[in-house]
Amino acid sequence: MRLVVIGFGVVGQSFAKLLISRSADLYRLYGVNPRIVACIDSCGYAVSATGLDLQRLLNAKKLSGTVGAYDKENRKFDPLRLIEKVDAEMLLELTPTNLDNGEPGISNIIAAMKSGKHVITVNKGPLALAFPSLLELANYNNIKLRFSGTVGGGTPILEFAKRCLKGDSIMSFQGILNGTTNYILSKMEEGLTFEDALNDAKYKGYAEAVPFLDVDGFDAAAKLVIMANWIMGMKVTIKDVNRRGISGVSLADVRRAHKRGNAIKLIATCDDKQLDVKPTELSNVDPICVNGTLNAVTFSSEQSGEHTIIGQGAGGIPTASAVLRDLIDIRNTIFEQRENL
Ligand code: HSE
Fold first, then answer.
1. Where along the chain do its domains lie?
2. How many angstroms separate the alpha carbon of residue 187 from the centre of ligand 1?
3. Which of 158, 166, 176, 306 is the most exposed, having the fewest neighbouring CB atoms within 10 Å of its CB?
4. With a cut of 50, which residues of the chain have pLDDT below it?
């Protein structure tokens, strides 16, 4: 399977490392042999029809800050043209989230779909702003669009709701959808200041490229929109979310809640078709009251009651594992369709 990767930050590099460490398993267990035939970042690109040498690609990025150094050539390039022209089956769209206009993610995804490439993205911008139209475009072009890593990092929150609760009806859900703010609030409970905790989250690669997206609740709101569209069949965008972030939460607030046996968490809720993100005081025994970068969501379903899923919500390797899951899923779906022809 030939892949074009656009965006080679924390998740892109983690994905390359996963491919290096897991390639034998991937072939043995799933019959897939993914090769990155083009890799593009904001300053350059590298291509190889037979597959890039991933360790060399990682070294080029580390030493020169761009994958363009892979070939020691500094060529001018047009990312959209590259996406269209490179001979590949799939685009991994891993550029940073932009919730103002979804770019460059939206254009990258459209260029891939129009040139017949399946798309995996971890970029929340395009889906938070244009979910219904991207899905429609994918169907129209007979393209698979997968986005597991947009919600829950490596935790299969979307798959859990969509596949494991098939046949049941989800009435509402609520949970922690942002790892960075959960990390900050957990560290504040341990006595760290807001700023120190945020710097720590940035250093560890949990935070968005522009961390106000985490702190002000935009990231959680974007994930809530993706879930509302995909799981609840709503047609909403980020403008439909009532949003408040955690910048107004003080150390004193956190300590007071702690004394009451509670904790303050940034909670996203979809209830009665209303979408909210806001700091909420929860009992420590509530199953979604988890710490660190964990995410947790409780789904309330009509037939089978409440289900909570918990897992790592941020970080390069967990999120890259969601990309790998999507890749295997697309490959299996294509094979099943071929067999049914
Ligand atoms: N910044 C995001 C978070 C990364 O902290 O949850 C995962 O989407």
1. 2-152+317-339, 157-312
2. 16
3. 166
4. none
Taking only the tens place, the pLDDT of each residue in 9-57 is 999 999 999 999 999 999 999 999 999 999 999 999 999 999 999 999 9
Look up residue 50 and give its DSSP letter.
T
The two three-digit tokens of residue 53, written as one number: 């040498």
The ligand 1 site (C-beta within 6 Å) comprises: 153, 178-180, 206-208, 214, 219, 313-314
Instruction: Sort strands 145-146 and 170-176 into parallel, antiparallel or unpaired.
Output: unpaired
Give pLDDT, residue 35: 97
Catalytic residue among 61, 124, 144, 223: 223
Residue 307 φ then ψ, to 5°: -135, 135
Mutate to test the pocket of ligand 1, among 158, 215, 219 (most ligand atoms within 8 A of CB): 219
Spatial separation of the C-alpha atoms in residues 3 and 32, rounded to whole Å: 12
For position 291, what pLDDT does the model report? 96
Q: Which CATH number fits domain 157-312: 2.60.120.260, 3.30.950.30, 3.30.360.10, 3.30.465.10?
A: 3.30.360.10
Task: Dig out the tokens for 244 from the structure.
Answer: 């408040």
Q: What are phi and psi of 213, to 5 degrees?
A: -60, -35
pLDDT of residue 261: 97
Give the Å distances, CA to CA, from 194 to 105, 139, 164, 251, 258.
Answer: 31, 44, 37, 8, 16
DSSP 97: P
Ligand 1 centroid – CA 85 distance (Å): 32
CATH of domain 2-152+317-339: 3.40.50.720
Q: Cα–Cα distance between 12 and 38 in angstroms, integer? A: 12
- Per-residue pLDDT, 306: 97
Q: Model confidence over 126-176: pLDDT tens digits?
A: 999 999 999 999 999 999 999 999 999 999 999 999 999 999 999 999 999
> Active-site residue 223, yes or no?
yes
Cα separation, 238 vs 68, in Å, equals 35
